[in-house]
Structures are given as C-alpha cells and as structure tokens.
Amino acid sequence: MLFISCGRFTLAALSPGRRRLVILISGRGSNMQALVQACRQEDWPADVSAVIASRPDAPGLQWAREAGIPTASVHHRDYAGREAFDTALAQEIDRHRPDYIILAGFMRVLTPGFVNRYTGRLVNIHPSLLPAFPGLHTHGQALATGVQVHGCTVHFVTPLLDHGPIIAQACVPVLPGDTPEILAERVLGMEHRVFPAAVRWLAEDRVSLTADHRVQVQGDPVRLYMWSGGDTAAR
Length: 235
Fold this sequence. Notes:
The chain is of the alpha/beta class. The chain is 30% helix and 26% strand. The chain has a single domain (19-226), classed as Rossmann fold, CATH 3.40.50. The strands form three sheets. An eight-stranded mixed beta sheet has the order 5-4-3-6-7-8-9-12, with helices on one face. A two-stranded antiparallel ribbon has the order 1-2. The protein has a two-stranded antiparallel sheet with strand order 10-11. Helix 1 runs parallel beside helix 6. The radius of gyration is 17 Å and the shape is globular. Keywords: Purine biosynthesis, Transferase.
C-alpha cells in the first residue's frame, strides 16, 4: 500500500482489487448494518472483513455474526488507559488486513498515535454538520443554539477530534417541537443514506485530496444529501 502526502494529511493509495473493510461499533450498529447491506446489495468491490466492538455486549455483534461476518470485542474497561486500549484494538484490526477502518458509532476517543497509524484509512460519521458541534450531545447542542439546519458528516479522521477532510454530508431541517431524540432519528435516517454512498466511493478508489486538504470524488457525485420530508429520502 502506498500513501499520497498532501501537506499535513496523507491519503491511502490502494492497489487494485477488492477492498477489505473493518467496521468498529459500540452499540446496536445501525450504521454498520446499513453499510453491510449496501455493500452486498450493490455489489461493491469490497468485503466487510470484520466487525469489532468496544463492548462485548454490543448488540451489533450478534447481527454481524448472523450475517456471517467475523466479530471481536476489545473492551476498554480491560485496559489501564487509552494507549493500552488502542494498542490492543490495533492488534485486532491488523489481523484482518483492512484497507479502510470505518467508525460506525464507535464511542471511544482515539489517541493520536492510533489515528496516525491508520492515516488516510480511518473514516468516521459524526451526527452534525461539521465543523459545527463536535463532540457529544450534538442534537441537544443544535436545539440549544437555535440552528434551522442540522445533519451529519462523513470525514477522514485526524488527531483533532471530529475534524478532518469532509467526504460527504447530509442535511435535515430542525422542526418546531423537535426534541434531541426526534432530531436524532431524523439525522440517523440520513446517516443510513450518506454513509454507504461515501464508503462505496472509497471502495471504488474514487476519492482523492486536493493540495489544500479538500476531498474530491471522481465522477462528481452529489455529496450533499437533503432531507425531502416524510421519511429520509435524499435527492
């Protein structure tokens, strides 16, 4: 595997062939399920090689096992600190020789050493329109500040939390009467659309970076998904 350097950020340049994806989760893994289903139904040039959870009781592990995907858990409580946990997690990931590591609701802050180990191969989805509302409780933050538009962002992971080159985003309106829970469900529906689209572009080797650290996608697909009312249909 080669790496293309663009200043402070390095993007993986992959050899031809099917991509190997490792997905990290912490809970039910609804985004993981959306990725697996899209990968299989749309016949991506990729395979989900493993699903790894930060909790042994994560419900998503059972779903993955039933889907025939190898699973593992690396429980953060079994380790003395973040560095020890990240070392064990990296060892488990590397057993599966992934091209990309996909964070799909993985609720652990990763150390800079871990992030740099997988530079250009580590991809996250965050439930806000970054750079707005990094961190936790994004839907409550959105309501508290009175924004009229909210959403989610698929991005490459860098050592700076919830930053990094943006691959795609999806928008939803903030509606009268919204609670954090209602808004979260509206956003989640769009996550299930935009995340598979972005990971498919990666699997197809269509993603590159400009010199000023912006993402380009070959073919210029729509990279901003818009909620159109009713359910979660995107234009």
